[in-house]
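Table 4 source record.
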Amino acid sequence: MRTHLSLTTKTPLIDSLIWVLIVALLLLWGWTAHRLHRLHGGIAALTHIFKQHPLPPPSDLPPASRRERLSALTKAVYDVTVEADMQRASAEGGQKIQNILLDQVQDALFIIDEVQEILYANRAAKQFFGDDIEVIGRQLIEVCLDHNFVQIAERAMQSQSLSPIQDKVKLATTNRTVLIEAGAINSNYQIGQGGWMMVRDITTELHTEQVRQDFVANASHELRTPLSIIKGYLEMIEDDPKYTQAVGIMSKHTDRLARIVDDMLLISRVESADGDMVKKEVLFDIGDCIEDIIQQLQPVIDEQNAKVKVMLPPDSEDRNFLGDRFYWDQIFFNLIENALKQNTHVAALKIEVVVKKKAKTNQFLIKVVDNGIGIPRDALREVFKRFYRVEKSHSQQKIKGTGLGLSIVKRAVEAHYGSIHVESQPGYRTRFIISVPGPPPASPQES
């Protein structure tokens, strides 16, 4: 009986505790739901704000952003978003400037990916292949309509060389000649593997150059015949005492005109070779070449009481030179004759021709040095230009050169993949220095 009363007494207390617990849980759930709702609303408001461009100032952010739980998150996201906007604006501005600059380039420029899909084309490229064609995203062959572009692009992207590939192509569709230059783009750039291609229309340049070469060649041939006739008649009457002085003056001017014609023909021959002027590569002793030229100029050397000294490698194998002997005759003739003509008043003129062979680099180093009057500093950059003469005054008694000799020398040296430059100290020395590759090493069988 006591036990029953005890259980009955405890039941209302337990029920009260359960109800209190239930109410507390309900209150906690309601408070949590309210907080979650406010948090969700604040996040939604912030998400809407951060999607706007540009971002509003911090003072215009919704009140939810200033609540304790969201203030730190809002500040962090706001700072990151502002920085991203600044970086994007900077990138867009740089891209616009880059596009403006590339659009000023007169040559057509393409950037392609590894499958030759066009990623970028400047304004010249779009104009070159038609303004009505959308080139971005299309294959290179679809835009250029010439397999040569595809082949050059493939060669450029497969090549491991840092130097770009160049080639001239005549377009069958438009009958224009273009110069194509292409190179590879490595994976360090954001576009990935790919390449670039620049196209220049050189049709007008080639036509103009051909007209100029034809004019020089035709004019030279037309002048040679009457000059030969005039010179022949002058030789017939030069023994008449009445005409001795006049004939002498006319003969000197005729000789100069003949030399100009010969030099113009040589320039025309050099340049009409279209970059491949060395037609007869033979192995010859460069010492024999120099000696032959000295023999040709010996009368002038004796007349000026000049001394010419030649220094060659002691080993005959190191004097073997691979090249076009005709052009090397022209090189040494013009350099030695130039030293003689420019120093007619030097009492003890000395000319040195030095040839050295560098075994490590297989390079010939050739120097032609004289102790004459020298070349003024401001004229050093001009001496290789056509018709340029350091001494520009002329008289009827003394006729200077044509001004084409050193221009011929420079082109002939460059055709042998060499270089030439001049150093001078007025009143003391002038030195022409040539560096040119030697012949390739002989194989054991050839040896």
